Amino acid sequence: MLFYIFKRVLMTIPVMIVVALFVFMMLRLSPGDPAAVIAGDYATAEDVERIREQLGLSEPIVVQFTKWLGQLVQGDLGTSIFSNKPVAELIVQRIEPTMLLALSTIVFAVLVAVPLGTLAAYRAGSWVDRFVMLFSVGGFSVPVFVLGYVLIYILSLKLKWLPVQGYRSPFTEGIGPFFAHITLPTLTLSVIFIALIARMTRASVIEVLEEDYVRTARAKGQSEFKVLMRHALRNAAVPIITVIGIGIALLIGGVVVTESVYNIPGLGRLVLDAVLARDYPIIQGLILFFSFIYIVLNLLIDLSYSLLDPRIRY
Amino acid sequence: MLLGMGTMTRRAVLAAALAVPVAVSSIASPANAETVMRVIPHADLKNLDPIWTTAYISRNHGYMIYDTLFAMDDNFVPQPQMVDTWTTSDDGLVWTFVLRDGLKFHDGAPVTGEDVVASLTRWGARDGMGQQLFGVIDTLEAPDEKTVVMTLKEPYGLVLESIGKISSNVPFIMPKRIAETDPFEQITEYVGSGPFVFQADEWVPGSTVVYTKFEDYVPRDEPVSAAAGGKIAKVDKVIWQYFPDATTAMNALMAGEVDFYEQPAPDLAPILSSNPDITVEVNDPLGGIGFARFNHLLPPFDDADVRRAAIMAMKQEDYLAAGVGDPQFWKTCYSVFPCGTPLENDAGSDVMATGDVAAAKTALEATGYDGTPVVIMQPTDIPMLSAFSLVTAEKLRNAGFTVQLEAMDWSTLTSRRALRDPVGEGGWNIFHTWWIGADVIDPMAIAFSGNPDKGWFGWAEDAELEEARTAFAKAGSLEEKQALAAKVQERLWAIGASGQLGQFFTPVAYRNNVKGLIKSPVQFFWNMSVE
C-alpha cells in the first residue's frame, strides 16, 4: 500500500509538468495581452511595449517558461501582474471560503442524497422512486444562478431569515455568522449534487439488491434495514464514493457562478477575474493548484476503495 | 445545560448579571460606535498605483489616500488643494507654488516640495497631459520645504488644468521615496496624504478594500465642490466591497447590507427606485460619451469620405436606446466635447447629427466604396459596447457596407486594437468604447489627437487638427479656448475621426441614511456620512 502511494505521488510530477506546459502555452497562444489591459485607452504603442518588457512578456516563450518553471521548483507560483501580490498569498486568501463551501455542500448533499437514493432503490417503481427521479431531473435542469436568485428573494429579501451575500470565517468571526452566510450557497449548490448522488446511489443499490448475497441475507432473516445498510449500501459504495470524490473536485474548481451570485471571495472568482484580465501568473498558479487537488482527490478515492471493498488491494 | 448552571458559583452569576448592563450600554452607546460606510465600487480594485494604470477604480483609490496640488471644482475650474498660494511671472514662464501648512503623509512625515517634484515627474512620464506639460517644462525644483518652482520654456495655457486634472492619470502627490519608482513599474508602498488611510493588510483583491479616516488630515476651509474644497472624512471607515454580480449587489443594497452602490446597471434602476429606503440619482453631470472608432490606416476607412458616410448612418438615439435603455439616463450630444461644458459647440457636427441610413448610403455610393469588408470587434463581455457593435453592424449593412462582426472579450480587443497590421493579420476596422466626460472635456484629450505616431488607437492624421490643438494649449482666455476648440471639432468631423454615440449617465444608488454626496464626474467619499 505504502509503495503504491509513493508510486502515485511520484507520478504526479510528470503530470504536473505536462499541465504546467499546457497551461503556459495555451495562455501565451490565446489572444489578449495584459500589457494592453494595463496600458488602457491613453497608451501609445510604445507604452504598451514598455509595459510588456517590464512584465517580461517580450522575452521568447521558451525563456519565459523556463523562468516560471525555475520559480515553481522553488515553490514560488509567481506574482500577480495587476495586484503585485504573490499568487500563493492570493490562493491562501481565497481557499478557505471555497473549501468550506465545497465541504458544506458535499456533506449536506451526501446526507440527503444517499438516504434518498437508497429509499428510491428499495421502493423502485413506487411514487417515492418517481419523486426522487423527478427531483433529480429538476436538480440537473435548474441553473444554479436561477435557484440562487429565487432563494435570495424568498429567504433573504422577503422573509429576512438569511443574509443576501458575503462570507464570514468561522475561525475569526464565529460559527453563527458562518452558518448564516453559508446556508444559502450550500442549499443552492447542493441541489445538483443531491440529484447526481441520489441517481448514482439508486442505480448502484438496485444493482446490488439483485445479488445472491442480498437474497441470502434476507433468507437468514436479517431485517430489511440491516440488509440495506450492511449488505446493499456498502457493496454499492464504490461508484457512489467515486461520484462524491469527483463532486468535491468539481466543487473546488467550479463554484464560480455560486460564488458570484452570493459574493463569496473564493477561488472560482479569482480564476474568472484573472482570465478576464489575462493575469497569467494567477491563471497558471490556480490551474496547477486545481490539478494538484484533482490528483490528490483521485488518489484518496482510489485508496478508499480498498477500505470499502476488501477485494481491492494495492 | 442544567448541569452547567448548577455548577456555577454565586459569584459568577453576580458577575454575569453586572456585566449585562455594561455590555448593553456599550452596544447602545452611539458615541463609541465606529461609523462605517459600505460601498459597492464600480469595479474591482486590482491595482494600487494610479500612475501605473489608467483604470478609473485605481484613480478613485488614489483620491481616497492621496491629495493633489490643484483640484477641479464643479465649474471645471482648477482650484488650489494642497497649494496655499501661487504666483506666475509676468512672462508666464515661472510658476511658484507654496504648500499649505500642516500637510502630512500617513506615516507622519511632512509633505515637502521634493515630494511634489518627484510625484509630478513620475506622473509626467506616464500621463498624456503630463507629457505635454513636461514637454514645455524647463526646470521643476523645490528651493525649500514648502515651495515648488516650475520654469517653462514657453508660455503654456494649461498648467493648472494639467496639475489639477480630475481624471486618469491624476497627479497625486506621494512621498519622494515612493514617487522615485520607475513610472513603468508599480509602487509597492501606499502612503499618501489624503483624507483616508489604505489598510494594506485588509485588502483582498477581487473582494474587499478598507480605508480608515486619517485623523491628521487638515482640510481646506472652502466648501466642497467636485474635487476641490475641504475634504472632510465623516466616517471612521470606508469599506469597498466588490460585487461581480449586479443583481446580488442590488439585493444587498435593498437588504441594507451595503450603503452605497456606485454604478448600478440602468436596467436595475427602476427596481431600486421602487424601494422607499433607496435613492437613485445621477451624480455625474458629464456622464460618459460613446465612441465608434475607425482604423484610419486600413481600407475602407483610410478614406475620410467613407468614414463620414459611416458616421451619417449612426443615429445616436438608436445606440443609446440599445446600450443604455431608459431615456432618463441619456441624451443626444453632437458636440465632441461633453454637452453642458464650456467648450460645447456645434461646429461641423451636421455629419453626426444626420442619423440617416439613406443619406449615408448615398454618400457611400459617391465614394466608390469597393465592398471591402468592415471588421467590427464586438466585446461580448461588456453589454453596452456589445450592443453598440451590433447597432453599428446593422446600420453599416443597411448603408451598403460589407460587415464582418467578430465577437471577443474586452481583453482580446484591447490587445488587438493596438495592431496596425492588415485585417488578415489581426487588424481591425472599428471598435467601440466610451470615455467619461471629464476625459474628453477639451481638445488635449488623446481621443482627439491628429498625430498617428502619438495618438489614440485608430491613428487619425491631420496636420490642421494638431495645429489647432497646439494653439489651444497655449491659449489664455476662455473665448480664445472656445474658438480653438470649435476649430478642433470642425477638423474632427471633417476627417471623420470617430463616430460619437451620445452622452449617457450612470446613476448611483444609496440608502437614504447616506448624506453628503458630492456631484462630480468622479465618485468621492469624503463629506459623506451614514446616519
Automatic annotation (TrEMBL), chain A:
Instruction: Tell me the InterPro entries matching this sequence.
Output: BPD_transp_1_N (IPR045621), MetI-like (IPR000515), MetI-like_sf (IPR035906)
Membrane topology listed for this record: Multi-pass membrane protein
Give Gene Ontology CC terms.
plasma membrane
What CDD domains does the database record attribute to this sequence? Answer: TM_PBP2
Positions of the ABC transmembrane type-1 domain: 95-305
Residues crossing the lipid bilayer are 9-27, 99-119, 131-155, 175-198, 236-262, 282-308
Q: Which Pfam families does the UniProt entry name for this protein?
A: BPD_transp_1 (PF00528), BPD_transp_1_N (PF19300)
What is this protein identified as?
Peptide/nickel transport system permease protein
Biological source species: Lutimaribacter pacificus
Per the UniProt record, the lineage of the source organism begins with:
Bacteria, Pseudomonadati, Pseudomonadota, Alphaproteobacteria, Rhodobacterales
TrEMBL record, chain B:
Which residue intervals define the domain Solute-binding protein family in the entry? 78-445
Where is it located?
Periplasm
Residue intervals passing through the bilayer? none
Kindly indicate where the leader peptide sits in this chain: 1-33
Please indicate if the UniProt record lists Signal as a keyword.
Answer: yes
Q: Which domain of life is it from?
A: Bacteria
Supply one GO BP term: peptide transport
By its UniProt entry, which SUPFAM superfamilies does this protein fall under?
Answer: Periplasmic binding protein-like II
The entry's keywords: Signal
The record's section on Pfam families has:
SBP_bac_5
Query: GO MF annotations for this entry?
Result: peptide transmembrane transporter activity
User: Which PANTHER family does the protein's record reference?
Assistant: D,D-DIPEPTIDE-BINDING PERIPLASMIC PROTEIN DDPA-RELATED, PERIPLASMIC BINDING COMPONENT OF ABC TRANSPORTER
Protein family (similarity comment): Belongs to the bacterial solute-binding protein 5 family.
Q: What is this protein called?
A: Peptide/nickel transport system substrate-binding protein
**Species name:** Lutimaribacter pacificus
